[in-house]
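Reviewers asked in the last cycle whether our approach scales beyond single polypeptides. To address this, we selected a multi-component target totalling 337 residues and predicted its structure end to end. The input consisted of the following lines:
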Amino acid sequence: MIGRFSLFPDQASSIAGQVDGLYFLLIVFSAVFSILIATAIVVFAVRFRRSRQRQLMPTSNGLLSLEIAWSVIPFLITLVFFGWGARLFITLHTPPDDALQVYVVGKQWMWKVQHAEGRREIDELHVPIGKPVKLIMTSEDVIHSFYVPAFRVKQDAVPGRYTSLWFEATKAGEYYLFCAEYCGSQHSRMIGRVVALEPAEYQTWLSSSPSSAGGGASMETAGKQLFEQLGCATCHQAAGGARGPSLTGLFNQPVKLTSGSTVVADEAYLRESILDPQSKVVEGYLPIMPTFKGQVSEEGLLQLIAYIKSLKPAQAPTEANQPAKTQAMLPGHEEQG
Ligand code: CUA
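The resulting structure, written as structure tokens, was:
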């Protein structure tokens, strides 16, 4: 927790124990082999030192069985590290589907956080314990890195694209949040805290009036307002068939492009289509959409994306949203972090 010195940070997330286990195993093996090798060097240096009685040692061409042993045993040991590390890596890059989504924008020199429900915070992140939380991150300027030692997670926030990170806090408390990528003169002061709360307390916090933090409307609502302000609905109507494709039920679905290829409509695709609409044009449509680069902030983009994510096809499909329905029936795709 914050303010207490300890050699190792708290283990406050579901994977912290696994990460530490692997780390300790590496330390133990490194220590054992270092001592073994150092001892062997000293012993052999003394035992076989040059002396008057023994000027020349008989040469040896080695022992095949010994050579095989010292090749195969270390290989098997490193395979254990590889297997364990790979499993952790995959776990860390596969957020559960039911994860709570929180949007993070890094800038020199602060972390700006938006919760889907509308609460915003700066250099602080409130999360419930016992529930997976997925952060969707980007940066306004340079590369920053979101690092929570107590959760054993770290991920760069990169300008111009989305990265993601997930964790499940297991212990209520306050933990350090560091920027772990040198990002300018105030980098060392880009420190915040993560507050892990009991689920009930988290709900109270979420609904309490966001006095200094600002905001209020949910990201979806803010995105809808922006959508209307920018006139997106002029072309992108729910029914489709207009000048632009329908956005209903689009998120995480495959999209056929004029180039003949198919992409999955994840956060990165939506972002690119807003800022650089000509790069991937949907099949059957003309490249007539203007760019919105410079008109929407990073946070605005995240709000627009949150709104587009919320556009689900109606429960009982009518003739009007038939195209959206057929798309929504295709299997879902997991976006890459
Ligand atoms: Cu931001 Cu270092």
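The longest strand covers residues 100-107. We regard this as preliminary and will revisit it once experimental data from Aim 1 are available.
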